[in-house]
């Protein structure tokens, strides 16, 4: 089995074994692409959400948050374009009976061409050393140019087919590229069809009077319909932002990648309202700012890249993804979209209410333009968790599994361990728990030998283990063990709070932005 597949399998099994993520309603054999966050997962998820909220809302005086309802008036989704255009092009393989997104099959093919080009570039880099001029090499090397031109031509043709609704040409492209079903290897495809991703439900008790509703497929619309309420009651001046985190629902066609693509998931979105004509400036600003936020977590610069969209969503005039190197390759983690005035104008039209801003400097009303940042909380979880999970061989030849989570996100910040379960050590350890729990999520563990307890906390991502031993009774010191280096220091109990705070404080982590 490929190494990447192994890694991904480990991620899924570790998440379950250590109480991070369980399949939903598992006793009934689970529900496809729906997952529950367990006792440790819920803490990690909450910490990621808090890290985002603090950097977006608390650290920007011109950004405020809201929490809109999941149910919205159904006309919202007509106005936003989701009823008519929130579709994925699907294709079935007649032999394996597996269903795929036609665009994903083509994009995966194009990505292989891209990887071939990147391989050539890497080889040339090695050959030419410091003298290597990548831009010149890409422009002049026939083979690399060939791969990249072919890739671009494929993506452009696909975008044209999807935009114009020419699904027959999308199928023709799949056939011309001889794309086979990854499951069966067969090229026996159905036609490409559009499939709306929204889940429907009903509001009201009787069948006659019930109103058809949708579960929101994005949190953004809750922000748009509240734009004027927030602007007026918050006396917000453009440019300003409204942020929100919350559940979104999509009936995904292909949902086979654990929490990467779920049918119920959580988004962290921010809509930034700007003067028309200034959107590109802020689009660039938010691209850069959001990437810095990701980099502040220290998972490695090489694991992120931008991908500019070839095919723009119905509301956007520019869009880019921040892609992350997941265990199954680079995939979208966050989207940054310049959404123009599409949404506010559409809501004006459908509601008959004005959604305009009065600019006192220019003495005129206008519908603001919007730059959106939208990151999936579950995808952030997977990104952080999959990079953090490592198998290490130690100097003595033994191995350990360690979850090197950024300590600011770790579910538990410190575990307090009495060396033995007697001689008054548990009592002192519990006193330390009582003291530290005011500031940090801490755990107490007295079961098993201390070495095994260290390993268990390593696997849970706990940055510190604090061991109470007999010396503690004499001089009020403990050993503090660092998860990543496994180094141990002797420190006074009175110093613990400061040591932990320095390491896990959001302030220190966000300052790296
Ligand atoms: N409001 C814009 C919007 O919803 P999107 O690119 O469709 O844009 C934004 O979604 C982010 O939401 C994605 O970058 C991804 O992180 C997350 N996301 C989208 N669909 C998802 C799914 N089915 N499961 C988990 N996360 C998803």
TrEMBL record:
Q: Which InterPro entries match?
A: aa-tRNA-synt_IIb, aa-tRNA-synth_II, aa-tRNA-synth_II/BPL/LPL, Anticodon-bd, Anticodon-bd_dom_sf, Gly-tRNA_synthase/POLG2, Gly_tRNA_ligase_bac, GlyRS-like_core
Q: Which residues form the Aminoacyl-transfer RNA synthetases class-II family profile domain?
A: 142-418
Q: Does the keyword Cytoplasm apply?
A: yes
Keywords associated with the record = Aminoacyl-tRNA synthetase, ATP-binding, Cytoplasm, Ligase, Nucleotide-binding, Protein biosynthesis
SUPFAM superfamilies on file: Class II aaRS ABD-related, Class II aaRS and biotin synthetases
Location in the cell: Cytoplasm
Gene Ontology molecular function:
ATP binding; bis(5'-nucleosyl)-tetraphosphatase (asymmetrical) activity; glycine-tRNA ligase activity
Its Enzyme Commission number? 6.1.1.14
What PROSITE patterns does the entry give? AA_TRNA_LIGASE_II (PS50862)
Which Pfam families does this chain map to?
A: HGTP_anticodon, tRNA-synt_2b
Gene Ontology BP term (one): diadenosine tetraphosphate biosynthetic process
**Mainly resides where?**
cytoplasm
Reaction equation(s) it catalyzes: tRNA(Gly) + glycine + ATP = glycyl-tRNA(Gly) + AMP + diphosphate
Q: Where does the chain bind substrate?
A: 101, 218, 265-269, 372-376
Signal peptide stretch: none
Q: Where does ATP bind?
A: 250-252, 260-265, 332-333, 376-379
The cellular component terms of Gene Ontology attached to this UniProt record, alphabetical and capped at eight, are:
cytoplasm; extracellular exosome; microvesicle
Q: How does it assemble?
A: Homodimer.
The role this protein plays is: Catalyzes the attachment of glycine to tRNA(Gly).
Q: Which family does it belong to?
A: Belongs to the class-II aminoacyl-tRNA synthetase family.
Task: Cite the HAMAP family for this sequence.
Answer: Gly_tRNA_synth_B
What name does this protein carry? Glycine--tRNA ligase
Species whose genome carries this gene? Flavobacterium indicum (strain DSM 17447 / CIP 109464 / GPTSA100-9)
Name of the gene encoding the protein in the UniProt record: glyS
